Amino acid sequence: MGATGQTGTFQGHAIPAFFFFCFGVFFLVLTLRRARSLPPGASFAEAHIPEKNMPMVHKLSVILIVCTALGGVYEGIGGIINAGNFFNQVGHETLYTMYFFVGVVMLLESGQRLPADSSRSALSLALFLEYVLWYDHAIMKNDGTDRHIHVIMALICLAGSVVTAGSVCKPSSVAAYVGGWGMMVLQSFWLITAGINAEFYAIHRHDMGVLLCLEILAMVSIVILGFVCCGPPLKMSEGGYLNGVDTTSRPGRSERKEYETLHLDDDEGENEV
Fold it and tell me: pTM to 2 decimals?
Protein backbone atom coordinates (compact mmCIF):
# COMPACT_ATOMS: atom_id res chain seq x y z
CA MET A 1 0.00 0.00 0.00
CA GLY A 2 1.34 3.44 -0.98
CA ALA A 3 1.89 6.49 1.17
CA THR A 4 -1.54 7.93 0.31
CA GLY A 5 -3.33 4.80 1.51
CA GLN A 6 -3.97 3.55 -2.03
CA THR A 7 -2.81 0.17 -3.28
CA GLY A 8 0.37 -0.04 -5.37
CA THR A 9 3.50 2.09 -5.62
CA PHE A 10 4.75 4.75 -7.99
CA GLN A 11 7.56 2.48 -9.18
CA GLY A 12 5.10 -0.31 -9.96
CA HIS A 13 3.19 2.06 -12.25
CA ALA A 14 6.22 3.90 -13.67
CA ILE A 15 7.95 0.81 -15.08
CA PRO A 16 5.10 -0.20 -17.46
CA ALA A 17 4.47 3.51 -18.17
CA PHE A 18 8.07 3.84 -19.38
CA PHE A 19 7.59 0.81 -21.65
CA PHE A 20 4.36 2.16 -23.21
CA PHE A 21 5.81 5.64 -23.63
CA CYS A 22 9.00 4.42 -25.35
CA PHE A 23 7.10 2.03 -27.61
CA GLY A 24 4.54 4.64 -28.66
CA VAL A 25 7.03 7.50 -29.13
CA PHE A 26 9.40 5.27 -31.12
CA PHE A 27 6.75 4.53 -33.73
CA LEU A 28 5.47 8.11 -33.79
CA VAL A 29 8.98 9.43 -34.45
CA LEU A 30 9.59 6.69 -37.02
CA THR A 31 6.33 7.63 -38.76
CA LEU A 32 7.43 11.27 -38.88
CA ARG A 33 10.84 10.40 -40.33
CA ARG A 34 9.29 8.15 -42.93
CA ALA A 35 6.76 10.81 -43.93
CA ARG A 36 9.61 13.27 -44.49
CA SER A 37 11.45 10.86 -46.77
CA LEU A 38 8.51 9.91 -48.97
CA PRO A 39 9.05 10.60 -52.68
CA PRO A 40 6.58 12.99 -54.33
CA GLY A 41 3.21 11.38 -54.94
CA ALA A 42 3.97 8.33 -52.79
CA SER A 43 1.46 7.00 -50.27
CA PHE A 44 2.64 6.48 -46.70
CA ALA A 45 0.07 3.74 -46.18
CA GLU A 46 1.18 1.78 -49.24
CA ALA A 47 4.85 2.19 -48.37
CA HIS A 48 4.77 1.42 -44.64
CA ILE A 49 1.43 -0.13 -43.58
CA PRO A 50 1.67 -2.97 -42.72
CA GLU A 51 5.27 -2.84 -41.52
CA LYS A 52 7.72 -4.04 -44.16
CA ASN A 53 11.02 -3.63 -42.32
CA MET A 54 11.29 -7.17 -40.94
CA PRO A 55 14.85 -6.79 -39.52
CA MET A 56 13.56 -3.91 -37.36
CA VAL A 57 10.53 -5.98 -36.29
CA HIS A 58 12.88 -8.83 -35.34
CA LYS A 59 15.02 -6.55 -33.14
CA LEU A 60 11.96 -5.01 -31.48
CA SER A 61 10.51 -8.46 -30.82
CA VAL A 62 13.66 -9.57 -29.02
CA ILE A 63 13.70 -6.38 -26.93
CA LEU A 64 10.01 -6.82 -26.08
CA ILE A 65 10.40 -10.48 -25.14
CA VAL A 66 13.42 -9.80 -22.90
CA CYS A 67 11.89 -6.73 -21.20
CA THR A 68 8.54 -8.37 -20.49
CA ALA A 69 10.21 -11.54 -19.22
CA LEU A 70 12.36 -9.48 -16.86
CA GLY A 71 9.28 -7.51 -15.76
CA GLY A 72 7.43 -10.70 -14.91
CA VAL A 73 10.39 -12.05 -12.96
CA TYR A 74 10.73 -8.71 -11.13
CA GLU A 75 7.08 -8.89 -10.05
CA GLY A 76 7.51 -12.52 -8.98
CA ILE A 77 10.60 -11.79 -6.88
CA GLY A 78 8.76 -8.86 -5.28
CA GLY A 79 5.92 -11.23 -4.40
CA ILE A 80 8.35 -13.66 -2.77
CA ILE A 81 9.99 -10.90 -0.74
CA ASN A 82 6.74 -9.29 0.40
CA ALA A 83 4.43 -12.29 0.76
CA GLY A 84 6.47 -15.42 0.19
CA ASN A 85 4.54 -16.15 -3.01
CA PHE A 86 5.91 -15.76 -6.55
CA PHE A 87 2.37 -15.19 -7.85
CA ASN A 88 1.41 -12.60 -5.23
CA GLN A 89 1.20 -9.97 -8.02
CA VAL A 90 -0.39 -12.28 -10.57
CA GLY A 91 -2.28 -9.38 -12.20
CA HIS A 92 0.94 -7.53 -12.98
CA GLU A 93 2.59 -10.76 -14.13
CA THR A 94 -0.34 -11.39 -16.46
CA LEU A 95 0.11 -7.90 -17.89
CA TYR A 96 3.74 -8.66 -18.76
CA THR A 97 2.71 -12.05 -20.16
CA MET A 98 0.27 -10.43 -22.60
CA TYR A 99 2.99 -8.25 -24.10
CA PHE A 100 5.43 -11.18 -24.02
CA PHE A 101 2.88 -12.84 -26.32
CA VAL A 102 2.97 -9.77 -28.60
CA GLY A 103 6.77 -10.07 -28.74
CA VAL A 104 6.56 -13.73 -29.75
CA VAL A 105 4.06 -12.91 -32.51
CA MET A 106 6.38 -10.14 -33.74
CA LEU A 107 9.26 -12.61 -33.81
CA LEU A 108 7.23 -15.09 -35.86
CA GLU A 109 6.04 -12.34 -38.22
CA SER A 110 9.60 -11.13 -38.77
CA GLY A 111 10.52 -14.70 -39.79
CA GLN A 112 7.55 -14.74 -42.20
CA ARG A 113 5.88 -17.53 -40.26
CA LEU A 114 2.75 -15.40 -39.72
CA PRO A 115 0.90 -13.01 -42.07
CA ALA A 116 1.74 -9.32 -42.28
CA ASP A 117 0.39 -7.14 -39.45
CA SER A 118 -0.05 -10.14 -37.14
CA SER A 119 1.93 -8.24 -34.52
CA ARG A 120 -0.49 -5.30 -34.48
CA SER A 121 -3.40 -7.74 -34.37
CA ALA A 122 -1.74 -9.30 -31.31
CA LEU A 123 -1.24 -5.82 -29.85
CA SER A 124 -4.95 -5.07 -30.28
CA LEU A 125 -5.76 -8.33 -28.50
CA ALA A 126 -3.31 -7.54 -25.68
CA LEU A 127 -4.89 -4.11 -25.21
CA PHE A 128 -8.36 -5.65 -25.05
CA LEU A 129 -7.18 -8.21 -22.48
CA GLU A 130 -5.58 -5.36 -20.57
CA TYR A 131 -8.98 -3.65 -20.54
CA VAL A 132 -10.49 -6.82 -19.03
CA LEU A 133 -7.67 -7.00 -16.49
CA TRP A 134 -7.88 -3.36 -15.38
CA TYR A 135 -11.69 -3.34 -15.24
CA ASP A 136 -11.76 -6.46 -13.10
CA HIS A 137 -9.03 -4.90 -10.95
CA ALA A 138 -11.11 -1.71 -10.62
CA ILE A 139 -14.38 -3.21 -9.43
CA MET A 140 -12.69 -4.95 -6.49
CA LYS A 141 -11.29 -1.66 -5.17
CA ASN A 142 -12.81 -0.35 -1.96
CA ASP A 143 -11.60 3.23 -2.40
CA GLY A 144 -13.71 5.23 -4.85
CA THR A 145 -10.80 7.27 -6.25
CA ASP A 146 -8.63 4.21 -6.78
CA ARG A 147 -11.53 2.45 -8.48
CA HIS A 148 -12.21 5.45 -10.72
CA ILE A 149 -8.55 5.63 -11.82
CA HIS A 150 -8.50 1.99 -12.82
CA VAL A 151 -11.83 2.21 -14.67
CA ILE A 152 -10.40 5.07 -16.75
CA MET A 153 -7.26 3.02 -17.39
CA ALA A 154 -9.43 0.15 -18.61
CA LEU A 155 -11.33 2.46 -20.98
CA ILE A 156 -8.07 3.86 -22.38
CA CYS A 157 -6.92 0.31 -23.12
CA LEU A 158 -10.25 -0.51 -24.78
CA ALA A 159 -10.04 2.61 -26.96
CA GLY A 160 -6.47 1.73 -27.91
CA SER A 161 -7.54 -1.79 -28.84
CA VAL A 162 -10.36 -0.51 -31.06
CA VAL A 163 -8.17 2.09 -32.81
CA THR A 164 -5.38 -0.44 -33.43
CA ALA A 165 -7.84 -3.03 -34.73
CA GLY A 166 -9.37 -0.40 -37.00
CA SER A 167 -5.95 0.43 -38.42
CA VAL A 168 -5.25 -3.26 -39.08
CA CYS A 169 -8.61 -3.66 -40.85
CA LYS A 170 -8.15 -0.42 -42.83
CA PRO A 171 -4.40 0.00 -43.48
CA SER A 172 -5.04 2.96 -45.77
CA SER A 173 -5.97 5.12 -42.74
CA VAL A 174 -2.81 6.90 -41.61
CA ALA A 175 -4.83 8.68 -38.90
CA ALA A 176 -5.79 5.34 -37.31
CA TYR A 177 -2.19 4.14 -37.55
CA VAL A 178 -0.87 7.25 -35.77
CA GLY A 179 -3.78 7.16 -33.30
CA GLY A 180 -2.90 3.63 -32.21
CA TRP A 181 0.62 4.65 -31.17
CA GLY A 182 -0.74 7.84 -29.62
CA MET A 183 -3.03 5.79 -27.40
CA MET A 184 0.02 4.00 -26.00
CA VAL A 185 1.51 7.36 -25.04
CA LEU A 186 -1.78 8.33 -23.39
CA GLN A 187 -1.75 5.06 -21.46
CA SER A 188 1.73 5.89 -20.14
CA PHE A 189 0.50 9.31 -18.98
CA TRP A 190 -2.40 7.77 -17.07
CA LEU A 191 -0.18 5.11 -15.49
CA ILE A 192 2.00 7.90 -14.10
CA THR A 193 -1.15 9.59 -12.80
CA ALA A 194 -2.14 6.36 -11.04
CA GLY A 195 1.37 6.07 -9.57
CA ILE A 196 1.27 9.62 -8.24
CA ASN A 197 -2.12 8.94 -6.65
CA ALA A 198 -0.81 5.73 -5.09
CA GLU A 199 2.29 7.14 -3.43
CA PHE A 200 2.60 10.93 -3.47
CA TYR A 201 -0.68 12.78 -3.74
CA ALA A 202 -4.28 11.63 -3.27
CA ILE A 203 -6.14 12.96 -6.30
CA HIS A 204 -9.74 14.07 -5.75
CA ARG A 205 -12.37 12.16 -7.70
CA HIS A 206 -13.81 15.30 -9.27
CA ASP A 207 -10.38 16.04 -10.78
CA MET A 208 -10.16 12.76 -12.69
CA GLY A 209 -12.03 13.95 -15.76
CA VAL A 210 -10.03 17.17 -15.83
CA LEU A 211 -6.73 15.28 -15.71
CA LEU A 212 -7.83 12.86 -18.42
CA CYS A 213 -8.88 15.70 -20.73
CA LEU A 214 -5.59 17.51 -20.17
CA GLU A 215 -3.58 14.36 -20.84
CA ILE A 216 -5.51 13.66 -24.05
CA LEU A 217 -4.83 17.23 -25.18
CA ALA A 218 -1.15 16.81 -24.27
CA MET A 219 -0.88 13.62 -26.32
CA VAL A 220 -2.62 15.14 -29.35
CA SER A 221 -0.52 18.31 -29.03
CA ILE A 222 2.69 16.27 -29.04
CA VAL A 223 1.64 14.60 -32.29
CA ILE A 224 0.55 17.88 -33.92
CA LEU A 225 3.63 19.84 -32.80
CA GLY A 226 5.90 17.05 -33.99
CA PHE A 227 4.31 17.14 -37.41
CA VAL A 228 4.21 20.95 -37.63
CA CYS A 229 7.82 21.43 -36.48
CA CYS A 230 9.47 18.42 -38.10
CA GLY A 231 7.06 17.08 -40.67
CA PRO A 232 7.12 17.65 -44.43
CA PRO A 233 5.34 20.70 -45.91
CA LEU A 234 1.78 20.04 -47.04
CA LYS A 235 1.63 20.42 -50.81
CA MET A 236 -0.87 18.99 -53.23
CA SER A 237 0.94 16.94 -55.83
CA GLU A 238 -0.17 15.48 -59.14
CA GLY A 239 -2.65 12.64 -58.78
CA GLY A 240 -4.47 14.04 -55.76
CA TYR A 241 -1.94 13.13 -53.11
CA LEU A 242 -1.50 15.37 -50.09
CA ASN A 243 2.05 14.66 -48.99
CA GLY A 244 1.66 10.93 -49.37
CA VAL A 245 -1.98 10.75 -48.30
CA ASP A 246 -4.32 9.84 -51.15
CA THR A 247 -7.06 12.45 -51.12
CA THR A 248 -9.01 10.72 -53.91
CA SER A 249 -9.61 7.51 -51.99
CA ARG A 250 -13.19 8.29 -51.01
CA PRO A 251 -15.57 5.63 -52.37
CA GLY A 252 -17.04 6.51 -55.74
CA ARG A 253 -14.94 9.63 -56.31
CA SER A 254 -12.66 8.25 -59.00
CA GLU A 255 -15.58 6.53 -60.76
CA ARG A 256 -17.60 9.77 -60.69
CA LYS A 257 -14.67 11.72 -62.12
CA GLU A 258 -14.35 9.32 -65.07
CA TYR A 259 -18.14 9.35 -65.50
CA GLU A 260 -18.19 13.13 -65.82
CA THR A 261 -15.18 13.18 -68.14
CA LEU A 262 -16.98 10.94 -70.62
CA HIS A 263 -20.07 13.21 -70.49
CA LEU A 264 -22.32 10.28 -69.64
CA ASP A 265 -24.52 12.14 -67.19
CA ASP A 266 -28.13 11.02 -67.35
CA ASP A 267 -29.50 14.53 -67.92
CA GLU A 268 -27.01 15.27 -70.67
CA GLY A 269 -27.77 11.95 -72.35
CA GLU A 270 -31.47 12.76 -72.41
CA ASN A 271 -30.82 16.20 -73.90
CA GLU A 272 -28.63 14.76 -76.61
CA VAL A 273 -31.34 12.30 -77.63
Answer: 0.80
